[in-house]
């Protein structure tokens, strides 16, 4: 990790972006940096604020070299960039976030070994390489179980095994390499704790509670969540332990499960910026983008203060008409919409809504529930639409 300060007027490169990348670019520009972006496919709606953009494959060494030589330092917004790409770029520019932490979180087996090493409670797991291993291991893991590839990355898939008959379907799922078979933790609550770290300097955002639908799509994040003192203390201990051992600089999050008996499990570590942590845009005095820039350029991390309670609501395509009505009505709601949404996908991410005010979280949730925007499901496709979708999938 680089300890050399990066001053305004320098060029900060960003590689590996998603829709949150626009907010990161804007924050870096506001801080006085020139910004270059490297993407593997054109995303002009996100990168238009950057000073320059390079489109190229992540294995195109000539373009990567061109990008590295044009930057003073390079950061990643999401952990989906292979660590070998950053090692190569490190020949030409500083990589202030470091690479060690990225290599750990990209490999589920390494991540779990790391969590074991720092005395953190995780779900039981075994490694498997074929169906025979799954059959032999499932009794020790129990049902339901999750089958996941060891390597994290874009486009990866996981499979849930609820009963023995499901294992036969894993024949198509398991391709080559090593997989992780992990117990599914039945839980009553899910939380995230986000922090920013730079050396010995650590600042922790208020804990956020997450709400998912039956398909495991995020509905909302609420902060600051109400957890008992003992659990909050343990969450903070875990965050501090990870920050002290991961050799990483910047913003990261730890996701938690809590069972009905109050047992706390760590689900995973996420490096970089997340959609969930957008809840702090309107609830704390500093957001994740500002803390990320401060950490990676060598500034002191800003002390975090909670200002108000708030909900971050995720808006999807099928909710567009309903949310437009609230856009005209709600004076305590803030909106961010994306203009590159796939209009044919009802589940595509349309934007975010921040619901804040003087009320507590329960009152804010009741306000949201009364609108019924998030209480309805997308309409089932007609026969013709189903046929079109099937034809499209066949053509692809």
Automatic annotation (TrEMBL):
Write down the superkingdom of origin.
Bacteria
What is the name attached to this protein's record? Phosphoribosylaminoimidazole carboxylase
**Record's PROSITE patterns?**
ATP_GRASP
Per UniProt, residues of the ATP-grasp domain are 112-297
Q: Which cofactor does it need?
A: Mn(2+); Mg(2+)
A single Gene Ontology biological process assigned to it is: purine nucleotide biosynthetic process
List, in alphabetical order, the Gene Ontology terms for molecular function in this entry. ATP binding; metal ion binding
Q: In which pathway does it act?
A: Purine metabolism
Show the Pfam families listed in the entry.
Answer: ATP-grasp (PF02222), RS_preATP-grasp-like (PF22660)
Give the record's keywords alphabetically. ATP-binding, Manganese, Nucleotide-binding, Purine biosynthesis
PANTHER family from the UniProt entry: PHOSPHORIBOSYLAMINOIMIDAZOLE CARBOXYLASE, PURINE BIOSYNTHESIS PROTEIN 6/7, PUR6/7
Q: Which GO terms describe its cellular component?
A: cytosol
In residue numbers, the region (Disordered) covers 371-396
Q: Where does this protein come from, organism-wise?
A: Limosilactobacillus frumenti DSM 13145
**Ranges that cross the membrane:** none
The record's section on SUPFAM superfamilies has: Glutathione synthetase ATP-binding domain-like (SSF56059), PreATP-grasp domain (SSF52440)
